[in-house]
Amino acid sequence: MRRNHRDRVPTTPDDPRYPAASAPDAETVADMDSALVGCRACPRLVAWREHVATVKRSAFREWDYWAKPVPGFGPADARMAIIGLAPAAHGGNRTGRIFTGDPSGAVLYAALHAVGLASQPTATHRGDGLALRGVRITVPVHCAPPDNRPTTVERDTCRPWLARELALLRPTLRVVVVLGGFGWQAALPVLATAGWSLPRPRPRFGHGAHVRLADPRTGRGLHLLGCYHPSQRNIATRTLTIPMLHDVLRRAAHLAEQ
């Protein structure tokens, strides 16, 4: 149920309550993204993302860093959602688009292109022509965290954005692919709150995990798939190989079309 305007908590973007107060009021994905990019609710993350944008890496010294929360990317009527972790300090935090300009994104977008879900295999900057086909990519934490490790408080503060995004995608959403255990743990309570029924005990993350969540209201289920995160470490150690990633994405695409 939508809140009456008299029940809203007046907040500014630097108030920790800002996501919880602002996200539910977004009527469209575009509205939500617009509110999200102004968020300053987590002081540590704000300080870090802006510090990185000042110090920069030598390879990117000519870049004007985005240095704001990074919204999701992809169509608002997607049948598949991919949930990662958070923007990379010199990737999404630099380019303003999730998984863009960093090694993990290079692997992910090349794989999406290989299975027919992206228009091109590379992602370098906003406006590079990349388009996703039936897929929206998002994250549970929208600001780059130090050492790629958001705190549980930061995750929970940011949670309303993910909750609203999935709610807005709900009419078309058929499959959610979660990259890594952090994203899995962040996504489960959001999905439960949104009305999908989780089995008991709660499903555990694993590469190739596949759980069908029931929707008591519509009778239409949601497929939840686990995939190792395409991080440099996972690729270097072959914890995740390109064929393994392709396999999960192909399965997800097939399920989304059923």
Automatic annotation (TrEMBL):
- The question of whether Chaperone is a record keyword is answered with no
Its Gene Ontology molecular function terms? 4 iron, 4 sulfur cluster binding; DNA-deoxyinosine glycosylase activity; metal ion binding; uracil DNA N-glycosylase activity
One Pfam family name is UDG
Q: Where is this region: Disordered?
A: 1-25
Q: Which UniProt keywords apply?
A: 4Fe-4S, DNA damage, DNA repair, Hydrolase, Iron, Iron-sulfur, Metal-binding
* One GO biological process term: base-excision repair
UniProt cross-references to Gene3D superfamilies, sorted A to Z: Uracil-DNA glycosylase-like domain
Q: Which residues form the Uracil-DNA glycosylase-like domain?
A: 71-249
Q: Does the keyword Transmembrane apply?
A: no
Q: Which family does it belong to?
A: Belongs to the uracil-DNA glycosylase (UDG) superfamily. Type 5 (UDGb) family.
For this entry, the protein name equals Type-5 uracil-DNA glycosylase
Species annotation: Amycolatopsis echigonensis
> Lineage of this protein's species?
Bacteria, Bacillati, Actinomycetota, Actinomycetes, Pseudonocardiales
